Amino acid sequence: MPGRGALCLGLLLLVLLGSGSAQQPGSCPALCECSEADKTVRCVNRNLTAVPPDLPPYARSLFITGTRLARLPAGAFPAQRLPHLSALDLSSNHLQVVEAGALAALPALRQLDLSGNPLASLSPQSFGEGGSPLEELALRGALRDHGVLLSLAAVLQSGALRNLTRLELADNGLLLLPAGMFTALPSLRQLDLSNNSLVGLRNVSFQGLGQLQSLNLSDNSLSMLRNSTLAQFRGLPALRRISLGQNSWVCDCAIEDLVAWLKESDQVEGKEALTCAYPDKMLGKALLKISVLDLNCSMPVDLPSQLQTSYVFLGIVLALIGAIFLLVLYLNRKGIKKWMHNIRDACRDHMEGYHYRYEINADPRLTNLSSNSDV
After folding, report:
1. Maximal C-alpha separation, the chain
2. How many CA atoms, within 13 angstroms, populate the side-chain half-sphere of residue 1?
3. SS3 of the chain: helix, strand, coil, percent, to 5
């Protein structure tokens, strides 16, 4: 019996040790909540300042939000530690710096949300050198710093995110976008640029976005769209949904191309609700109801050519005036010569009178003589 009891006790210890060692790889960090059944780890509204190093490898979805996380260094997610992680939510933290290679060791990452962070530095090598499998990137309200916008443009243009299908850049107060920012995104299907302050798309190229299906440009400061931009829209075969609401459309002659495109296109959502913001006489008028007579345009407005024509016309007028003036002088040359002689004689007589008076005033004897003769 004593021997059998010792044997049972030993077996029990082995089972406990085995179970403890089996649970260690799937342990949950102290400030997080884990669900192995859902393959989810949540570290929400906790006092975290760094990514927990002991995240369970079974995690497919990781939420680290509402924390004091300010920096994402290289190696924040150890290589092969999270081989199945496909969705990473780092929104609404205090994240300012994303270093080179910080997101490179996540081979299954498909969705990344960095929204609501005051990003100040984003390394162009954040996703590593060999590219990333990332498909969805959300940066809502995270690009207030212009330098970060330029860094993001460098990341996109490098081809590191060629697999992106959705890119969200809303709520960033963007005025202009870097030229060629989207040229290396052949798989992009959804692009959200809403609720910014975009005043134009002159530098923006949509060439190469053959898979683009949805483009949201609502709630910006667009006053018109140039014909070159409209031509790009026409050339995107998959583009079926464009949002242009809540923009400050200026309804003058420059908007003719946009109005014509709206009337013929079926790409714009809610185009019936688009209205003029300026000038006052057109305020609130639907763009689809604008006619050529309303704009009073006889030809498309081309300000540089108009200015050039005006300068040429002014030069011709001044040349004609000069030629007429010279012709009048030539035809009246004798009269002008006689007039000049008369003026010369009159001036000479006048100067001689001054000279005579000067001589009298200078000689006292002549002065007395002049006074006596006057008496």
Report:
1. 173
2. 0
3. 35, 15, 50
Q: Return d(Cα 337, Cα 217) in angstroms, integer.
A: 75
Q: What are phi and psi of 304, to 5 degrees?
A: -60, -45
Q: 3-state class of 88 per DSSP?
A: strand
Q: What is the DSSP letter of 300?
A: -
Both tokens of 51, joined, read 């990514």
Residues 352-362 pLDDT 10s: 776 666 666 66
Token duo for residue 266: 């079926």
The amino acid that residue 2 corresponds to is P
- Please state, in angstroms and rounded to a whole number, the distance separating the CA atoms of residues 139 and 117: 8
- Separation CA 100–CA 80 (nearest Å): 18
Q: Which tens digits make up the pLDDT trace of 33-91? A: 999 999 999 999 999 999 998 999 999 999 999 999 999 999 898 777 899 999 999 99
Beta bridge partners of 43: 64
Of residues 346 and 57, the one with the higher pLDDT is 57
**Residue tagged 């924390």 (tokens):** 67
- Is 41 in contact with 33 (CB distance < 8 Å)? yes
Per residue in 268-310, pLDDT tens?
Answer: 999 999 999 999 999 999 999 998 888 877 654 455 656 667 7
Cα 244 from Cα 235, distance rounded (Å)? 18
- Beta bridge partners, 370, equal none
**128: Cβ contacts below 8 Å, ≥ 6 apart:** 101, 103, 104, 105, 160
Q: Are 74 and 102 in contact (CB under 8 A)?
A: yes
Q: pTM score, two decimals? A: 0.73
SS3 category, 242? strand
